[in-house]
Amino acid sequence: MKISRRRFLLSTAVIGGGLLIGYAATRPSRHRLANETLGSDGQRYLTTWLRIDPDNRVTVYIPHSEMGQGVHTSLAMMAADEMDADWELVTARQAPATDLFANGDLITGFASEFGVPAFLNPILAASSVRISQLVNLQTTGGSSSVRFTGEHGMRNSGAAAREMLIACAAERWGVPAEECFTRLSHVHHNASGRSLSYGELAAAAAELEPPENPRLKQPAEFTLMGKALSRSDIPPKVNGSARYGIDAYSEDMLVAAIRLAPVFGSRLLSVDASQALSRPGVRRVIELEDSVAVVADNYWRAREALKLVKAEFSQTEFDNVSTAAIYARFDQVLASDDGKKDREIGDTPAALEQASEIIEASYHVPYLAHAPMEPMNCTVHFHDGGAEVWTSTQDNLGIRGRVASVAGLDEDAVTMHPVYLGGGFGRRLPFNWNMIDHATLIAREFEVPVKTVFSREDDMQQDYYRPAVASNFRAAFDAAGNVTAWENRFTGPIQTPGAAHIPYNITNQSIRVVDAETHVPIAAWRSVDHSQQTFFTESFIDEVAHRAGRNPYQFRLDLLADHPRHRRVLEVAAEGAGYGRNLPDGHAMGIAVQESFGSIVAEIAEVSLEAGGELRVHKVTCAIDCGRAINPDTVEQQVESGIIFGLTAALYGEITIENGRVAQQNFPDYDMVRMAQTPDVQVHIVESGEKLGGLGEPATPPIAAAVANAAYILTGQRIRELPFKNHDLSRSTPVALQ
Amino acid sequence: MATLKINGVDYRLDVEGEMPLLWVLRDELGLTGTKFGCGIGACGACTVHVNGAAMRSCVTPVQAVDGAEITTIEGLAEAVNGTSPEAPALTRVQQAWIDYQVPQCGYCQSGMIMAVTDLLNNNPDPSDAEIDRSLSNICRCGSTPRIRRAIRALATA
After folding, report:
1. Most buried of the four, A280, A291, A672, B106, by CB within 10 Å?
2. Of B47 and A54, which is predicted with more confidence?
3. Which domain holds residue B136?
4. What is the fold, at CATH topology level, of the domain defined by A325-367+465-726?
């Protein structure tokens, strides 16, 4: 994939007379959504911005959503550090959802890294030419904010601003720029003892041409990057003042409760709403193609009335589909189809032919819901020929376009109000549109704001799910017991290229994917394909190690001779966990390592088997190499978060399909790790100085395999299907560790 | 008709007695700090204090708390620290949430803070097992290791 892109810095004084600097690039075409035609192809700019006001305050506009990952703080740190701003004077704001603030660093970052991320696939489905549309994004996903937007856009903007401010001061003083230096939002000239604040220079600096290649700091010069600074989004989150999408409120607001077709693809046939309409507070019952909604003056009233609505939905060809049938189909396609190449190294068939011994194993994992704590919701207010939107989203620009297209409005007529997200995890990425479409169509019927809110049950049953995947392995050994071949056949589609690849030095590898799509809608779920593939590959490599009579930790190290960063995180995690020490009776350690989103993570889980045959995870020791830590505390937060997210999935997570629809409804049957199941989490950051890696996702993939590998030692049972709750481990025989 | 004192203010509300307190707070009064998470009392995002005790407002009909004093996250600091001009703007639990950088997305934290405040009121130095038993709120972001650290710090403070 090739992206033609011209980069330059754009400087304009647009807002409040301050200096605005953005790192900009041309955009060859107007952004339209996947199923729309291309718009006009006038040249546009995409930018990330800094603003300096006369009172010396700096505002950093962040083209990413804040969903607890601390990105409004980390990205502001990167810009402020490069410009030598006084952190006390810096404020981060969500960038407005307008074309000028679209984020091109994202797509170039992804393109240089591993191609286009999964959540963007729908926009590419029709034609690769559509890559050009991706530049008009404010997407928060792919663990990309710091490593792409921050490392490129924010740092360059900050550095360019600093050089412009120096140039301006030098000219004013009539001294060489080289004699000036910057510190805490001031330019100083030592020889004359003079200094000027950035605020005093900003208006004049905005008249200068920005440098094309500003000098970036070396790590030793950083004053903010690398420090564990407090997140700016936390204070409003402890006193109830933080506004999430669901908190949109006005006196005249109406609220909609909705019942969607229970089977994906089904259509609404008929409705009897007579009882509902007589309920207190109910204004209207609205029929949509695949759903019926009750609009009332209060959510509870709307939902109670909805219970009285009789609705009939069309039958579909999927009405008899069950999880068992889906898994049976997976097994069948994997047995009958050799699939497409994912990675082929050496001659695996020959190695299998010549093997002294072959082991094989079949794994599978279920669909998973995202279940963010804030149920999906969207408020739209149509008035004066336009629309205002409040919704928690991982892409404000994408939502703006979507609402505009559903409502038949020009994009400029749609105003997005930035809000906090009550969790994202991929649920709130572009193309998971169901909620947005419905909210727009419902609100279009009213002149007041209408907030459409999914119940938890709607949220769980109308998600775009982490795909269920099956994976079959074979490994070959020679007479000396060395592993000579690794064969893997798994069900696709692939959402994240490379997730099934292994770092281990095995001469012959055949990794192939067989597409096996179902009627269940799928999307990116925190760490995307890595969540399944790491469970598979890091469990099976453990099986190979045990079969070879080797210690799984040492076995991995031996096969990672040419992967020093993998070795290092394994060693740091092992040392931190005290791997190999005498453990309390009935405890065992399992290990797993995976590279994803540019970071390499090793996790060691210390696990015991409780009296009831349940696994208890006592402690997880994690080592992460993300290049450098911009904010070490948010790195730790994301690692803790990712591990517990992955542990929830490993222990309990399972969406099953019965009669074509999702069986689970709410937290009792889709349970979560709570305080009582929370392990002690120890995080070790390995500063390799390599290119920045992502943080939102990479800690999630290894945990399931780490726990499963410990469970094997405890019980002798190899868990090849998640979640753990479905396994009876009470009768078990511990395995001696080499 | 229900009569409630919410965050020190008296309200007479003309709503159905079965309406859950959560929706009275959020949709009738615009007190949106208390969150909707599950609607069945399973996640704790909607936790408020009723006469000082933690209660899940999404499964509490307003008629069941008629005449009660309700404290929500918006009124917690005043309820704990008083209303004098010198009173701190945050409770020690809220301050610990900042000190230990507990919230991530933060959506569950209103309920979490209300639940932890109640726990520490009744048991100022809870053991790990008591913390586990008392706090069944769900945090999807996995802030629970930090919540435990913050509680431990508050307990020993």
Report:
1. B106
2. B47
3. 81-156
4. Aldehyde Oxidoreductase; domain 4 (3.30.365)
Cα–Cα distance, A690 to A683 (Å, whole number): 19
Min CA distance, B5 vs chain A (Å)? 18
Which residues of chain A have a CB within 8 Å of the CB of B22?
300
Q: How far is A66 from chain B (nearest CA, A)?
A: 8
Find out if CATH 3.40.630.30 is the number for domain A7-231: no
Chain A from 651 to 670: CB within 8 A of any B CB: 666-668
Is A255 near chain B, with CB under 8 Å?
yes
Lowest model confidence (mean pLDDT) among A43-57, A263-277, A483-497, A600-614: A43-57
The whole-number pLDDT of residue A631 equals 97
pLDDT band at A413 (very low <50, low <70, confident <90, very high): very high
Q: For the residues of A166-229, what is the DSSP string, one character each?
A: HHHHHHHHTS-GGGEEEETTEEEETTTTEEEEHHHHHHHHTTSPPPSSPPPPPGGG-SSTTS-P
**Of B15, B98, B147, which is closest to A234 when you measure between CB atoms?**
B98
Among 3.10.290.10, 3.30.365.10, 2.60.300.12, 3.30.750.24, what is the CATH number of A245-316+376-453?
A: 3.30.365.10
Q: Coil, strand, or helix at residue A486?
A: strand
- Tell me, yes or no, if A298 comes closer than 8 A to chain B by beta carbon: yes
CATH number, domain of B73, equals 3.10.20.30
Say if A238 is an interface residue toward chain B (CB within 8 Å): yes
The stretch A93-105 carries a mean pLDDT of 69
User: In this predicted model, what pLDDT tens digit does every residue of B107-140 receive, in sequence order?
Assistant: 999 999 999 999 999 999 999 999 999 999 999 9
A17 pLDDT more than 70: no
Question: What residues in B contact A643, CB-CB < 8 Å?
Answer: 142
Exposure class string for A544-559: b at 16+ Cβ within 10 A, else e: bbbebebbbbebbbeb
Q: What pLDDT digit, counting tens, does each position of A642-687 carry? A: 999 999 999 999 999 999 999 999 999 999 999 999 999 999 999 9
Chain A contacts of B76, Cβ < 8 Å?
239
Is the CB of B101 less than 8 angstroms away from the CB of A453?
no
Of A430, A432, A408, residue with least CA distance to A137: A430
pTM for the structure as a whole: 0.92
Residues 394-423 of A with CB under 8 A from B: 420-423
Are B74 and A239 in contact by the 8 Å Cβ rule? The answer is yes
Is A10 a residue whose pLDDT tops 60?
Answer: no
- CA B144 to chain A, closest CA, distance in angstroms equals 6
Could you tell me how many CB contacts below 8 A there are between chain A and chain B? 184
